[in-house]
Amino acid sequence: MASRIEDPLGAFCAHSRPMLPGSGEGPLEGRTFAVKDVFHIAGYPTGFGSPEWLETHQPAAVTASAVQRLLDAGARMVGKTLTDELAYSLTGENVHYGTPVNPAAPDRVPGGSSNGSASAVAGAAVDFALGTDCGGSVRLPASYCGILGIRPTVDRVPLDGVIPFGPPFDVAGWFARDAELLETVGRVLLDETRLPPEPRRLLRCVDAFDAVEDRIAAALEGAVARVEDAVGPAIDIALADGGLGHWFETFRIVQGASIWSNLGEWVTATRPRLGPGAKMRLDWAAGLDERAVAAAREDHAAIRRRIESVLGEGDVLVIPTSPRGAPLKNTPIDDIEIRFRNQAMHLLCIAGLGGLPQISLPLSEIDGLPLGLSLVGPRGADMQLLALARKLTA
Question: What CATH number should be reported for the domain whose range is 32-190?
């Protein structure tokens, strides 16, 4: 069924407002959730942040498995949330549909591309929300809005019924305001009942902290100390030889090639009216050289081997989620691309390249703005990170 939703945050889609009852029983009974407008809901259109996408695609025939799992666990869906245009942004500003409110900083963006989901959770319009994360689309909004957000291990949450964006990096993630609920949602989506082991070692990624300004690293010192109290003294390690710049470029090229492979035919045929950020990135992806892509894919394989050699079972890697707080609304596109998006991607690419789980925790602030600290684990350590997050924020 569909219904009107009170939406003072501007977080929900006006074109499609499905409201689906939960099963009436289960660990999420009585909880409400929202769904990013890239997940299909049977009988409703999926807009993907683009009016032209909405016009050129039929309503969905099936509901995404991840959504169905939440409904079966008792949660009630109360609407679909806005996303950036074709999900190809990290700011949360959509030229067609507007910018949801960042409840932690109303003059600033909520982050993207899962902007509506983050806004709805931070503003208490729902208990939790689904998003997707390819380059950072759950983790960065979580940091900007001062809430918890998780990017799970690649392939741990089913993606059938979700618009493909940038495999092999796409995952379905989620937001909540408290870690206990974040963990409960995780048990449902990950279909996990076993108790996770305790972490055995805390690793402080020095190249990630070196990639942010000294004042950001200083602002996170107390949060890192809090994790040390729970796990043990941190061991400094360097992941990337010569810094994270090469890792960022590798991720950017592999991701861009995948995005164009998924969207290029439709973009070429439809010629949609793109906002400046999406147009800039799609034009760049369309022009990628095949040899550069092949080389980047080889580098990606080498980077994954490096990560696996460093990050073992029971290890927790601690990194900044973002290089700064949320930018002001309407920040010039050049500033957004360099000072916010690209610098953030130096940090966000680590989990993406490794296919790793990462949780952003609202444990710090800078200039009165939320600033997330992230926990990253080896592949499959999702429940271990969720349990640690609950312990840290109890």
Answer: 3.90.1300.10
CATH of domain 201-392: 3.90.1300.10
Helices marked H in the chain — which ranges?
A: 51-56, 65-72, 115-122, 139-145, 179-190, 206-210, 214-219, 221-231, 245-270, 276-286, 290-310, 333-335, 343-354, 382-392
Give the integer Cα–Cα distance in Å for 370 and 346: 19
Per CATH, 32-190 and 201-392 having the same topology is answered yes
Round to whole Å and give the CA distance between 142 and 125: 15
For residue 171, give Cα distances in angstroms to 112, 153, 255, 274.
14, 8, 13, 25
CB 350 within 8 A of CB 376: yes
Q: Where along the chain do its domains lie?
A: 32-190, 201-392
Sequence-separated (6 or more) residues with CB below 8 Å from residue 58: 45
Q: For each of the chain's 394 residues, which pLDDT tens digit applies?
A: 444 568 999 999 999 889 999 999 999 999 999 999 999 999 999 999 999 999 999 999 999 999 999 999 999 999 999 999 999 999 999 999 999 999 999 999 999 999 999 999 999 999 999 999 999 999 999 999 999 999 999 999 999 999 999 999 999 999 999 999 999 999 999 999 888 899 999 999 999 999 999 999 999 999 999 999 999 999 999 999 888 999 999 999 999 999 999 999 999 999 999 999 999 999 999 999 999 999 999 999 999 999 999 999 999 999 999 999 999 999 998 888 888 899 999 999 999 999 999 999 999 999 999 999 999 999 999 999 999 999 999 8
Catalytic position from the list 16, 36, 89, 258: 36
Q: How many CB atoms lie within 10 A of CB 364?
A: 23
Of these residues, 16, 50, 113, 119, which one is catalytic?
Answer: 113
Q: Is 113 a catalytic residue?
A: yes
- Active site residue: 119, 137, 258, 364, which one? 137
- By CB atoms closer than 10 A (0-12, 13-18, 19+), residue 347 is buried
SS3 229: helix
Tokens describing residue 37: 């407008």
